[in-house]
Structure formats: structure tokens, C-alpha cells
Amino acid sequence: MRALKFSNDDVDDVTKLVYLHLRIHTYAMGWTDKAVRRYARDAGELLDRLNELQRADCTTRNERKAAALAQRMDELEARISELREREELDAIRPALDGDQVMKFLGLAPGPEVGVALDFLLEVRLDDGPISEAEAYERLKVWAQARDS
Questions:
Q1: CA of 59: how far to CAs of 30, 46, 65, in Å?
Q2: What's the pTM value of the predicted model, to 2 decimals?
Q3: Where a domain ends, among 46, 70, 90?
């Protein structure tokens, strides 16, 4: 694509789509809220294009397999819509920001703050939105476990 003078943004987008496009096949057992959140977060603003690509990528002539893939995509898109109604799915962030984490844990700016924010993001992806109070409680337990 670079030889064809596509922009870096286009190359990055296509690379990301190719990387993510087979993920639908790993979720044959059903889509948990956690899996849908991760899928949407990983795809980001390319989510609609990724879904289009996955529908178009069905190359089988076996009508039963093609119908099963279409049904999985329908189910996934329905789950995304459900979660979008309940949560801010397009902007998944931890319940606390870096300043709050630093004040609560008594940290200076640095990599430890990022590790704590990554933990809170994992909590958000696993459990959905939580209150600030719940985030502080989980952060406290996490920090105590790391210190011991």
C-alpha cells in the first residue's frame, strides 16, 4: 500500500482491520458483555468497517456455513447495540483518571500510574461501568495485593 502512495493512516487502518477480522470465528460459543466490550474497544472507530469486512469475507459456498456466520454477525451487532444503549461503549475508560489514582495511592507521575490505570481499564472491560467509590475500593485491594 505504501508503494501505491496510500497515507500512513490508511495503511494503519487496513493493517488493523486485517489483524482483527478473523476474531468473529473465535467467539462461536457466544458473546459475553466482556468480549463485546473488548471487541469494540480494539476496533475503535473502525468497528462498522470491521463488521462489514467480516460479512464480506465469507468465502464459503456452503450455504449452511454462510448462514451461520451471518447469524453470528447479526448476534454480535445486536449485542453491540444493546451495550451502546447501556454504556458508553465508544469511549471505554477507567472509572478514575491519572490524577485521582496518583492522589489516592500517593504516587508521583510515572509508569506505576499507568499500571494502575490498566488495572482499572481491565475492571471496566470485565464488569462494565462502576462507580468512583467502587473503583477506589478495587484500586485499594489491588494496591494492597501488589504490596504484599
A1: 22, 22, 10
A2: 0.61
A3: 90
